[in-house]
Design goal:
Dihydrodipicolinate Reductase, domain 2; alpha/beta; about 15% strand
């Protein structure tokens, strides 16, 4: 009689051989809830054009106040409501607007934890722009869409799988845009590199990398009521993945011809986290869930890979990593901006003493190469305007401008609710992997079957009249 383990292995081989694609025997499944009856996906969602986009901003701390400053400088946008728990922040932002020449009447909401409900209900608000702490993103966005508003949510827009599916279902139900305010897809190097990849300069892109490495020691006290350090103390996994994963997912056309299928995550112990929390609280802290360094490796349907890292606890220099590896070329933003392209030489010109023979573009050569691959929306005039307004060097202004532009013209947004879902899901799914000894975890298809219907990422542009 055969050994039971041998019988099991034989059955498993037969099962796998009978499938159309390999089956990972140890992958943790992630359920996909059924789409509510009567709903359809929102791929390529458009809404009626809005002549003047009336905006209500909720959360007027560091990010919200900067958003107000940028939004008042965008043609076709008008802030009609401001909201924050603290009344003095509302007044300060109203004053900021007046000092910038914006004298329109703005409704003010403050004083209670749910003051934002009045803003969401206000008739002359088309877009609710959410810049609160992470814990309040979801309830505000859900209620705003219920009130018939489009929503733009600071990162991360959702913290767990229930919130992710909730936002998807609400957007599909209400047919309202639900966009995450991921500014890093609009940085100049990333936009140019995306253009290069789309035009085939790197051959076929097979691997990408992204990260959020940022020593937050100088900033922990800036977060109201200690919310950010507290969240890291209570949650394991890559809790802030979107800056790293957003730009590289665009390069890979995720849910526009490819999709993420599984991830594996590993982390270090919390060597610094507990010390930082102890210093902050003035008493010993022995438990700190978030590792100092978290690395997550993701595989796609087409056999490509994504590496994402998170580190806010060490003196490591700021980096979003951003690397693009193709069959014929390579791009890297950190620590030095450079491109490497394959150089084919005749056999008699190959020198085996050289480690590599690829052509490296940096400095002036890099600038000259980039000039031939200008992103379609980055005209010289618009790039200069973005840099003059600023916001992380200008990428925040581009993000806001594109959001208002698309709403004004009734176009699909550059980022949809499925981007939000894919980029946010790394947090809860990496936690599952870590809690199960770094086992592979299934990444669900948030489009529920439509991931391959749209082919390739592109910017929607209005037709010139």
């Amino acid at each position: 009689m055969k050994h039971p383990i041998l019988l099991f292995c034989t059955a498993l081989v037969l099962l796998v051989s009978g499938c159309s694609k390999p089956v990972h025997p140890t992958m943790i499944p992630t359920p996909v809830p059924a789409r509510p009856a009567g709903q359809t996906d929102v791929l390529g969602l458009t809404a009626e054009p809005i002549e003047t986009v009336h905006i209500g901003v909720v959360g007027l701390g560091m990010r919200g106040s900067e958003a107000v400053r940028r939004l008042v400088q965008i043609p076709g946008a008008e802030i009609t409501a401001l909201c924050d728990l603290l009344p003095d922040r509302v007044e300060a932002n109203q004053l900021q607007m007046k000092e910038m020449g914006k004298t329109q009447v703005v409704s003010k909401y403050s004083g209670t934890q749910e003051s934002w409900r009045g803003l969401c209900e206000q008739a002359d608000v088309d877009l609710v722009y959410i810049c609160t702490d992470w814990l309040n993103h979801y309830p505000i966005a859900m209620y705003a869409m219920e009130c018939g508003k489009h929503v733009a949510i600071e990162v991360p827009a959702a913290l767990d799988m229930d919130q992710i599916w909730g936002l998807i279902n609400q957007s599909e139900k209400t047919r309202k845009h639900c966009m995450m305010l991921e500014n890093c897809i609009y940085d100049f190097f990333e936009m140019t590199t995306l253009e290069m990849a789309q035009r085939g300069l790197f051959g076929e892109v097979i691997h990408v990398e992204g990260a959020y490495c940022h020593n937050l020691d100088p900033y922990w006290d800036e977060y109201w009521n200690n919310w950010r350090l507290d969240y890291n103390q209570k949650h394991r996994g890559d809790v802030y993945p979107t800056h790293g994963i957003g730009p590289v997912c665009q390069v890979l056309d995720i849910h526009r011809g490819d999709r993420m299928t599984m991830l594996v995550s590993m982390d270090t112990k919390s060597f610094n986290g507990a010390k930082i929390a102890s210093n902050h609280e003035g008493k010993p802290v022995t438990e700190f869930a978030n590792g100092d360094e978290t690395s997550t490796l993701i595989r796609t349907e087409k056999g490509k890979t994504i590496l994402i890292e998170h580190d806010v606890m060490t003196p490591r220099p700021y980096s979003r990593m951003y690397q693009v590896v193709g069959t014929d070329g390579y791009a890297s933003k950190y620590p030095v901006e450079e491109y490497c392209l394959r150089v084919d030489k005749p056999a008699d010109q190959v020198d085996a003493r050289h480690i590599s023979d690829e052509k490296v573009y940096s400095g002036a050569e890099k600038d000259a190469l980039q000039a031939g691959y200008r992103n379609v929306i980055l005209t010289p005039e618009f790039e200069a305007l973005a840099k003059s307004v600023g916001g992380h060097g200008g990428m925040d202004f581009i993000m806001d401008y594109r959001l208002v532009y698309c709403l004004h013209h009734g176009l699909p947004l550059d980022m949809d609710v499925y981007d939000l879902a894919e980029w946010c899901c790394v947090a809860p799914l990496s936690r599952v992997s870590l809690e199960h000894g770094s086992m592979p975890v299934e990444v669900p298809d948030f489009t529920r079957g439509a991931w391959n219907r749209v082919q390739g990422f592109h910017y929607a542009l209005a037709e010139e009249k």
